[in-house]
Write a structure and sequence with these properties.
Blueprint lengths: L1 H4 L4 H28 L4 H12 L4 H31 L2 H9 L4 H12 L8 E2 L4 E3 L2 E3 L4 E2 L3 H5 L33 H18 L4 E2 L22 E2 L14
Antiparallel strand pairs: 1-4, 2-3, 5-6
Helix pairs in contact: 2-3, 2-4, 4-8, 6-8
């Protein structure tokens, strides 16, 4: 899976091709185990639907699980790292969140909007002639929704360039909308909340170890992902009172 997340050029693409075979065999094995023994979880549920309806082929099953594995891990990873980056370079926001972790749900919605790990959607094909945003589109035209641009639309969210962890309402499209709304939206929110709370409760004075403008972003279309995020842990000094034994 690392070969997929670091797909940036021809070399990494060749590495991806080399890793597809073993990954495909692994997923086929997991699916077959679920068919033989049942069980719980997403793969078992997919197999159950497969048995009941027989509306999906074995290759489609493998492709679906592969997609869910990538979409359910990589994008949330980038959301978490992007959120940590924003908190470590803005200590006032970090302190505001640490004062009351019940604010985390609001903050995560703003991180989803501001960080926008997924920058645009997959291509969509126009089903009939239509006018969209003042542009005439013909049946069969290919379009892509720019989620990052929508999240920075001042008509949807006032002062969109400002990271406002208390923003309400927050009209972002980071999970899509309508029939294309992300199935894993609640899991991504829960994982991000758990990660941030665990990280900053353990190291409340976590800071960037390098200047913010030295952080590098992966050169991969469609995803906003930090290449590396060096951090430093600073412990507050504690004065110990000596104990005297009688």
């Amino acid at each position: 899976m690392n070969r997929v997340t670091r797909l940036t050029g021809m070399v990494s693409f060749l590495g991806l091709i080399a890793g597809i075979g073993p990954m495909k065999r692994y997923l086929e094995g997991r699916l077959q185990t679920a068919r033989d023994t049942g069980g719980e979880g997403l793969i078992a549920e997919l197999v159950r639907v497969e048995k009941e309806g027989e509306r999906i082929s074995e290759q489609e099953m493998v492709a679906m699980v592969f997609l869910l594995l990538g979409a359910g891990s990589e994008t949330t990873t980038h959301l978490i790292s992007g959120s940590v980056y924003e908190l470590t370079r803005a200590p006032a926001l970090r302190d505001w969140l640490e004062e009351d972790w019940s604010r985390a749900n609001l903050a995560i919605e703003e991180f989803l909007r501001f960080v926008s790990p997924v920058q645009f959607t997959k291509p969509r094909f126009v089903r009939k002639d239509i006018e969209l945003g003042g542009v005439r589109l013909k049946k069969g035209d290919k379009i892509m929704a720019m989620l990052a641009a929508a999240n920075m639309d001042p008509d949807a969210n006032p002062r969109p360039e400002k990271l406002d962890l208390a923003r309400r309402p927050n009209r972002h499209l980071s999970f899509g909308t309508g029939i294309h709304f992300c199935l894993g939206h609640q899991l991504a929110r829960i994982e991000t909340k758990c990660a941030l709370e665990a990280l900053f409760k353990r190291w409340p004075h976590l800071e960037l170890a390098v200047p913010p403008d030295s952080i590098r972003w992966r050169r991969r279309p469609g995803l906003r992902a930090i290449e590396k995020l060096p951090v430093a842990i600073h412990f507050t000094r504690m004065t110990a009172t000596p104990l005297h034994h009688r």
